[in-house]
Write a structure and sequence with these properties.
It catalyses: uridine(2552) in 23S rRNA + S-adenosyl-L-methionine = 2'-O-methyluridine(2552) in 23S rRNA + S-adenosyl-L-homocysteine + H(+). Its main location: cytoplasm. This protein is of the alpha/beta class. The chain folds into two domains: 29 residues, no CATH class; 200 residues, Vaccinia Virus protein VP39 (Rossmann fold, 3-Layer(aba) Sandwich). A seven-stranded mixed beta sheet has the order 3-2-1-4-5-7-6, with helices on both faces. The longest helix is centred in the middle third of the chain and has 22 residues. The termini are far apart.
Length: 249
Amino acid sequence: MAGRGDDRGMTVRVKKKHGVKASSRRWLERQLNDPYVRRAKADGYRSRAAYKMIEIDDRYKLFKPGQAVVDLGAAPGGWSQIAADRVKSTKDNISVVGIDYIAVEPVAGATILEMDFLDEDAPDKLLETLGRAPDIILSDMAAPTTGHRRTDHLRTMYLCEVATDFAIRTLKPGGHFLAKTFQGGTEGDLLALLKRNFTTIHHVKPPASRDGSVELYILAKSFKGRSHSREARVEDVAAEDDEEAGPLG
């Protein structure tokens, strides 16, 4: 596996060209000089993100053969590649289904739906294609960046919240949920929701994340089940009613 010390050889510089933004040139230089990007090409992975999934799974042991996996924000397919390999999903018995509004080249052992997860019909289409309740839900969804850090944070957090709701509604008991968030902390209400519905919560920044990146992943392990979720919601409503009523006397 590539590591931070594997970046050997000369540094590639991109020449300045008329009409090419400095930010675009810096991005291209970063891609050309990224050891994970080079290793991904050599290993046949779609992107450096595959190594994030490998590092997370090696540490937290998410995947087991035969599990059903949903990959939200699947493009370009790196996470689906790793998931399909580790749950032993094959073209004759596919157990990995991804979704993205960006077209994704076919991934061996996975079905990728080309549609927006925020579409009303998308969750049902995912479950229909998978054919059973998922054991693992992955979300690498992130909103297109605006350059305004707070705005980008809020937009990606919204996607994390939508993915969380989907996970709580569809996961098998004992299932796991992994989603992209941003450094600066998972919002308090969302973190509290995850803690009520999963046994353990971890904030994870895999080594394959770029040094300057503010991305962070939240891993919720061992879903407690929907009956537990309903009980938790009833307790929350009761607590809110008590707060609105105010003290007696």
